[in-house]
Write the structure tokens for this entry.
Amino acid sequence: MPADLIEEQCVFGRFSPWQKVQIIHSVHGRGRRVAMIGDGVNDVLPIKNATLGVAMGDGSRAAKTVAGVVLQTNDFSLLPVLLDEGRTIVRNLCRSGKLFLNKNVYTAVLVGFTLGFFNLPSPNALQQVTLLNLLTIGLPALLITLDRSKAPATRRSCLGEVG
């Protein structure tokens, strides 16, 4: 299949499993993401190679096993809701991870300066660490994970947002 045809079109149908895999690899080679929807045994390899594999609920057991998402009711209208929920979860995980990373870096710098540079006693007594972690990490991380606002699509990685 010509690469320019693959670049021009966005929906393909009635292809052999190997042609489907070739399409997926061609699009992946251009640095793009691919979703594959299938329901039969012949769709197993393309579903597995796609960025997002979607299997139909009435499909074969093999397709449902390798798919990342199974539409139990065969209702395509659930896909936008599914993507929004996934984006929200990933955004909240990234925000919580940034919170943990920033707290640990700040604590390491604080301990390093007080002990090494200023030759002062440790800024945190062992009895205070649990309370400090609860207030600086526990409650904010809980509030971040409860955030249900809609998250936009992004191409940045979680670590790219920290720096």
